[in-house]
Amino acid sequence: MNMSLGFSCSASLSPQLPSQLLARNSNNGGLEKVKNLITKTGIPSHITSPLESLQKGNWVKLICGASFEDVVDIRNLSLVYTLAGVDCIDCAAESSVINAVHDGIEAARSIIPVRRPWVMISINDSEDLHFRKAEFDPDDCPIDCSRPCENVCPADAISYLGKDGLSKGGVLAERCYGCGRCLPICPYDKIRAITYIRDVAATAKLLKQDGIDAIEIHTSGREADSFRELWNGLEGSIDKLRLVAISLPDLGELTIPAMNSMYATMNVNLHCLNLWQLDGRPMSGDIGRGATREAIKFARDLVSIKDKPRGFLQLAGGTNAHTVEGLKRERLFQTAATSSEKSLDSSHAMISGVAYGGYARKIVGRVLRSLQSEQGYAHLEDYPDHLLKALIESIALVGTVKSYNNNGS
Ligand code: SF4
Ligand code: SF4
User: Fold this and answer.
1) I need a surface site. Which of 15, 34, 118, 216 has the fewest CB within 10 A?
2) Spacing, Cα 161 to ligand 1 middle (Å)
3) Could you tell me where the beta strands, DSSP code E, fall in 85-182?
């Protein structure tokens, strides 16, 4: 697949200030520290393939967010996590977002020649929490409201006042990823959620372009007809893909029948790898230690079942820095599957890896917000001290799965 597309989202950045140009010119020295950290850490996935990671059980996916469309953040997140050695970057099915991911990957590869992570786009077959946006009209808000909505938003997507500090703001649609935390917090019930379903024909068109390696279908697992309709709509556009992922919630005893039904639909024309994303507690990894429990329980329940359809298993939903320790407690971390289980390869791991979303964005987002407050929208690599801080955070997280030599500290 030709990935040298020369994507750029530079147009979305502010014009370079003199101080930014100075910073750019003095970067070479600063970037040496970044390269040294990477060399010292020793990141094997910089050269091994994402498929190997799936088989060994150390696959890591960065979830930018199915609805998150802030291309500046997405570009910088992709840069940092490519350097940290992720295997896949999952993003919204929008051209501008995909371009931003590629731009970040290429920026990383211009610092150190690492292998490219796979690029995945996410779509849905029916109503799904990941595919919604919050909305309110600030003109309707009582003037004396203490604005709890602003504080609760993990994506800094709500601003009662506009960027000029005078006009009315609201929800920044490109930053809202639908977590829903603002909905119950408004004392005046002013915030509503708008759900949407990604257009299948537009997705099929996107998939025909180069630069997309994988697709993820978010499903409730309860609506076989919607899933079939979506799958059939993609026909002819999925032939070049390396991986199809299905993200589904824990349906208890209905999980395996749902997986079997979806696999039967896909199997007719599935010519690549497939993966089941076990979505524990959606979009909650940044909340705290306990958020990861549901994904681990889901994984534990599923691996004990023998008649699963073929496909790698990967955790998501509530995943954070405590996920691997939980998997280890359950003896699920990089434990080999037995050949009696329907595996893609007799030696692959029971759990292939972990996807990180809200938590991964939060730990790097702190650095991005600090950079933004100092320099406006900027390329992270132009500010090596910030890049170094972000990289230390991302290596610490990715390293829990990849077992790096150190945590970059
Ligand atoms: S709290 Fe969640 S749903 Fe509300 S605006 Fe922020 S990201 Fe969107
Ligand atoms: S909490 Fe509700 S009323 Fe208050 S600023 Fe936010 S949306 Fe408006």
Assistant:
1) 15
2) 16
3) 88-92, 118-124, 132-135, 158-161, 168-171
